[in-house]
Specification:
Blueprint: E1 3-13, E2 34-49, H1 54-57, E3 61-66, E4 72-78, E5 83-89, H2 97-102, H3 104-107, E6 113-128, E7 134-147, E8 154-164, H4 171-182, E9 186-187, H5 193-201, H6 220-243, H7 249-266, H8 273-308, H9 319-342, H10 345-359, H11 371-395, H12 400-427, H13 429-467, H14 473-500, H15 503-508
Antiparallel strand pairs: 1-5, 1-8, 1-9, 2-3, 2-6, 3-4, 4-5, 6-7, 7-8
Helix pairs in contact: 6-7, 6-10, 6-12, 7-8, 7-12, 8-9, 8-10, 8-13, 11-12, 12-13, 13-14
Length: 510
């Protein structure tokens, strides 16, 4: 079973193994009281990647390492700033299947093979506080790298790793950085030892090609291309978290699918729809598969909260037990559906298409236009669609037809919001204002929809309880509460819409 930890570290180009003149100056930095020598380790690691180095190009690494205190398989995935997630699996001859699956969003199923062997002599020291607790681990490494690629070479270097101990203040890294800088110990900008080795031993391998037909800097197409590339990367980064059931990961991945799908639809004037429409269809499929797990998660939280908040005398029958049984079955079904989707050839094909979309967006002639002219027009069209749907929803009497109309208006609100988010780097404050105000409309209509869905489930629960000879009182009470909640949101929606569609907003769309 793989285990995970977060590592936060910085790498430096150390002058030489025997030059540690800077070490005494680190004592006294912040809470550092002393230096503890942890001895020498001999490490031997083989790094795996695709033939075209897809892991390296996405700042991820997979290695099999012997020696040291953590021998085994290590998959490192980038996080923010100086942090990475390291997922460890026990030492084995073959790549553990769990780690192979966690690389799929980057490799697209292309086989992994050995690319570099690194043999490292590591001298380890800890910076500790007055109580002897470790604050930072200093690893002075002499590295010998041998490329395992065809016609690859050999290189050696010395580097310093400064890794923050668990629970230590990240600001300590900045203070140590200043001391090292004054001593002439410079940062190594390579994201990993693998990247450093490849740059030295295989300089022409894994180098990104210049995008063909790229939009001119500052154009609408350039801004849109950057946004799409960021969203595609976000989906790729979320894949391992979804597979490992990291909290909120399924939700975030589904939202990313919607961001991409909504942007591709809104900016049809800029993008070739013959290319983007099939991608939109597949993003809809993926979001739907993820939705089973995510929608159940939201619904179960809502129903469980409703049951917990009822006074004990109103809980008639095995209400909590029935709800838990329903949760177990639905949660397992949703998880299976998510994993089946992520392990399917259809998903791999979608990743290929998204990679191509990110590298070479299918830009039309209007992509060369000025961002304000092109993007404001797109936002105006999306606003018009939302306005028509909202007017219809607010004119209908309360009931199923109005519920459906509000849900359709909510979809239009999400598309306008996503289009505004894509335009934000180009348009700045106006796009940010639009997204903020439309988010309020989306939230109220979303709460209304959640209540509608909850009422349907509660009715089915009540029927099942009745068939089993259980009291249906509590289920009916919860149904009534949800009905009141949806009516409350219906009353709130006109006010939120007026605030979101005032004259200043309409002026920003001209």
């Amino acid at each position: 079973m793989a285990q995970s930890k977060i590592e936060t570290e910085r790498k430096y180009m150390a002058p030489a193994v025997d030059d540690v003149s800077w070490l005494p100056d680190l004592i006294g930095v912040d809470r550092v009281e002393s230096l503890v020598d942890r001895g020498i380790q001999e490490l031997d690691a083989v790094y795996y990647d695709t033939a075209d180095l897809r892991l390296n190009r996405s700042s991820a690494t997979l290695r099999r390492r012997t020696g040291g205190t953590d021998a085994g398989w290590h998959l490192k995935l980038p996080l923010v700033d100086d942090s990475r997630e390291e997922i460890q699996a026990p030492l084995a001859e073959e790549i553990p299947e769990e780690l192979r699956e966690l690389t799929l969003s980057r490799t697209h199923g292309v086989p992994l093979r050995p690319v570099v062997r690194l043999r490292t002599t590591r001298s380890v020291r800890d910076l500790v506080d007055a109580d002897g607790g470790a604050l930072v681990e200093l690893s002075l490494d002499t590295v010998r790298a041998d490329s395992l690629l065809r016609e690859g070479g050999h290189t050696e270097w010395t580097e310093l790793e400064v890794e923050l101990a668990e629970g230590a203040d990240p600001a300590l890294l900045n203070r140590i950085d200043k001391v090292l800088g004054k001593k002439g110990v410079a940062r190594d900008r390579s994201p990993s030892k693998l990247a450093h080795a490849l740059a030295e031993t295989a300089p022409h391998e894994g180098v990104d090609r210049e995008p063909q037909g790229a939009a001119a800097p500052g154009s609408a197409g350039a801004y849109l291309s950057g946004y799409l590339a960021d969203e595609v990367q976000a989906l790729v980064d979320l894949d391992p978290a979804v597979r490992r059931s990291t909290p909120d990961a399924v939700h975030q991945m589904r939202v990313t699918c919607r961001h991409l799908r909504g942007t591709l639809r809104a900016y049809r004037a800029v993008l070739d729809r013959e290319v983007t429409e099939p991608i939109r269809a597949e993003l809809k499929w993926l979001a739907g598969e993820l939705g089973a797990e995510r929608d159940h998660e939201v619904l179960n939280d809502r129903l469980s909260t409703g049951v917990r908040e009822l006074p004990g005398e109103l809980l008639l029958g095995p209400v909590a037990a029935r709800l838990r049984a329903w949760d177990v079955v639905q949660r397992a079904a949703g998880r299976r559906r998510t994993l089946d989707a992520l392990n399917s050839p259809r998903y791999t094909t979608l990743l290929d298409r998204l990679g191509e979309l990110s590298a070479r967006p299918p830009l039309r002639a209007k992509a060369a236009g000025k961002p304000k002219k092109v993007m404001v027009k797109v936002l105006g069209k999306e606003y018009g669609r939302l306005q028509r749907r909202m007017v219809l929803a607010l004119e209908l009497p309360s009931g199923p037809d109005r519920d459906t109309a509000i849900h359709q208006a909510r979809k239009a609100a999400k598309r306008l919001r996503y289009a505004a988010q894509a335009a934000r780097p180009a348009l700045g404050k106006p796009a940010r204002r639009i997204a903020k105000r439309i988010k309020a409309v989306q939230q109220v209509s979303g709460d209304h929809h959640d209540s509608v869905v909850a009422r349907g489930v509660l009715r089915r629960m009540a029927v099942a309880a009745h068939v089993a000879g259980e009291p249906g009182f509590t289920w009916g009470l919860l149904h009534g509460q949800e009905r009141a909640a949806s009516r409350s949101k219906e009353k709130e929606l006109p006010l939120v819409w007026r605030q979101a569609s005032d004259r200043r907003l309409r002026k920003a769309l001209r």
